[in-house]
Amino acid sequence: MPHSDTHVLGLIADTHGLIRPGVHEALTGVELILHAGDVGGSSILEELRMIAPVKAVFGNTDAPGEPDLTEEILIEVNGVRVHVSHGHEVGSPTPAKLAARYDADVIIYGHTHRQLVARLDGRLFVNPGAAGPKRFNFSPSVGRLTISNGSAEVEIVDLS
Questions:
Q1: pLDDT (tens digit, 0 to 9) for every residue of the chain, 160 residues total?
Q2: By CB atoms within 10 Å of each CB, which of 47, 52, 70, 121 scores lowest?
Q3: DSSP 8-state assignment for residue 140
Q4: Per-domain boundaries in the chain
Q5: Which letter, b or e, does each residue of 40-58 get, where b requires 16 or more Cβ atoms within 10 Å of its Cβ?
Q6: DSSP state of 28
Q7: Is the entire prediction scored with pTM above 0.90?
């Protein structure tokens, strides 16, 4: 990432083949979008790239061998280590299960479709919620992760 004091990353998960109109506005100005899986096809990533560069991981419903997807992402932004996975690899993901498996300052995941922002042992855990088709009675949402001076804060943006 370019060296500056403040970085804003877009967080999205569980699009399942649908980009809602509000996603463009919600993620305007981010320098990178991290997709936590269940993308639903390369056209989703192409549309997100109209907003900012995209890194994305496999979800449990994504086709094996999808060239733009990886098992996990680990990046460092302004001294903060950020890990992204779908979360299904730990069963039903919780901050405790993810903390036991991954060593990062910020852990981003999807899978449950439920928005979650939690801190555990000084680490930040974020599920931006599901941005795709509405399921399980949860409001569709994305996240904006701001990293400044070695600390991270997140805002969940409702898309309904």
A1: 445 689 999 999 999 999 998 999 999 999 999 999 999 999 999 999 999 999 999 999 999 888 899 999 999 999 999 999 999 999 999 999 999 999 999 999 999 999 999 999 999 999 999 999 887 788 999 999 999 999 999 999 999 8
A2: 121
A3: P
A4: 6-158
A5: beeebbeebeebbebbbbb
A6: T
A7: yes
pLDDT at 137: 85
Given its phi and psi angles, is residue 45 left (phi above 0), alpha (psi -120 to 50 degrees) or beta? alpha
**Which fold does the domain 6-158 belong to in CATH?**
Purple Acid Phosphatase; chain A, domain 2 (3.60.21)
Rounded Cα distance between 101 and 106, Å, is 13
Q: How many other C-beta atoms lie within 10 A of the C-beta of residue 127? A: 28
Assess contact for 145 and 128: CB atoms under 8 A.
Answer: no
Distances, alpha carbon 146 to alpha carbons 7, 8, 88, 115, in Å? 6, 4, 25, 17
